[in-house]
Amino acid sequence: MGSAIVSKLINRRGTLSHEITLGLIALVLGATVFYVDAFTEVESAIAVLYVIVLLLSAEMLTRIGTTLLTIVCAALTLFAYFYSHGLGENVPAQLRLAVSLAAITITCALILRNETARAGLIEANLHLRDSETRYRYIFEHSRIALWERDYSAVRSFLMSLKAEGVSDLKDYYRTNPGVIVACTGLIRTIAANDAAMELLGHMTDGLHSRTMRRYIAPDDDTFLDLMNAIFCGERHFEGKGNLITENGESRLVIMSMSFPEDPTAFNRVVVGMVDITQREMMQKALREAQDELARASRAATVGTLSASLAHELNQPLGAIVVNAQTLLRWLNREPPDLAAVRRSAERIIRDSQRASEIIHNTRSMLTQGDRTPERVDLETLIEETRALMEHDFQRDMVDFDVNPAEMPLKVKAIRIELQQVLINLVTNAVQAMRETAIDRRKILVSLGRKDDIFVSLSVRDFGPGISEEAMAKLFTPFFTTKPSGMGMGLSICRSTLEARGGQLIAGNHPDGGAIFEMIIPIEDDHDQR
Ligand code: ADP
After folding, report:
1. Domain Histidine kinase: where (predicted)?
2. 466 within ligand 1 shell (Cβ under 6 A)
3. Is this model's pTM higher than 0.85 or not?
4. Rounded distance from Cα 94 to ligand 1 centre (Å)
5. Are both 385 and 519 inside the same structural domain?
6. SS3 letters for 167-193?
7. The total number of structural domains that make up the chain
8. Judgement on whether residues 382 and 471 belong to the same structural domain of the protein
9. Which atom of ligand 1 is nearest to the CA of 484?
10. What is the pLDDT of residues 101-129, one digit of tens each?
11. Considering only CA atoms, which residue is closest to atom 21 of ligand 1?
């Protein structure tokens, strides 16, 4: 039990043999001091030497051990005093006792304080080691490419330029393009994680011999921005740049780094990079495909318009011919009936104007026409759409009914866009009813005010309606259930309306068929009142 306590009191620091030696010396010294103090006539503060015993034992003992040893030393000192001098008054001996006790107590206090400081230091060290390990772990295992780079030389170089009077690095670069090459040669890589190695391609020779010059694309402006950030003393940098990998491939990356406040810490800056090459390429391809399809969809709409153009022009051109023949007849009369000639000429002019308007409308469809918002009377727009699609309605034997609003509704919009959306919805409705019995094939267009801000224009058909599965993907580009469909119409219609603050809502009517509702912002409703 006693030995267990003793061993508990003994610190584990130091080697065992070293501790045993020190312990023995301390024990012998303690015994000698006690013997000399208690049993000899030496008239000096010999008990002060207990201080050495305490110091020798300090390394081996815990705080409690040191305190106990101090008590023991003090007790032995007191015992020796009373043993040698009894209770009588002996001022020099009492002074020596006081000095010895003070020395023992002060030494104990110093040892304890030292011990506290040392324990604090050890703990701080452990924390430091712990956080270094954690940092290393995150650094090594991150899927983000991370580098530790030494930017101290490049910073010094940039600061020396500043000291020489350069105030605008980008301006300086225009006359001294070599400055960037010089900078790239000054940045050294200290460490890189696996993701970074993968990004740049694995290097055959060591990291440390490499500067950044090898990896920076010659036409990359981001590096100049980065240097400028250091030059201006900014604390963070983020940019999108091009890197050249070991095997010469180009990689588009987003890089991010924070610079330390302390200039001496520029020798270890962590740089993070994310490879976005694939993502950018996909997005570019998607954008191109969408543009292409939007063009194709417009062309399809224009196709509908062109088909109706011939049909539309037939009527005014026929009327012009008839009126011209009538005019000639009135002219050939003896005497010519000039009033009738005038009437015919006026009709010819009216019909020519109508023909020219039809051609103009179609051309603006083809060239996207005028794209400034104008007041659009929705009833007129519906009637125009009916006229344009008459041909389709006749071919598919579809009735086109309009449920007008209680009062005329005008919205501020780009006419051609609204017409394109409406033509798309009506075309879909016609196509959806190909399997419907002929006497039920009907498109019902309803117009009404939704609230103070929006107008509702809905297109209802009497086809099979939209299946649950199709409903979920209806507005997704490329979704189609038609053998020759492109699946872009609804997606384009929705984005066209949304771009102007509107909406396109799809649903099924409780009595069957699909219903698409265009929600169009009035924008400025003064004209409505
Ligand atoms: P596309 O007409 O080329 O298929 P859309 O984007 O216009 O492309 O339409 C996508 C799909 O939405 C159609 O293939 C069809 O399945 C469904 N759809 C569109 N309109 C209707 C409708 N009126 N009734 C039923 N389904 C419809």
Report:
1. 308-524
2. yes
3. no
4. 111
5. yes
6. CCHHHHHHHCCHHHHHHHCCCEEEEEC
7. 4
8. yes
9. 3
10. 999 999 999 999 998 998 899 999 999 99
11. 428
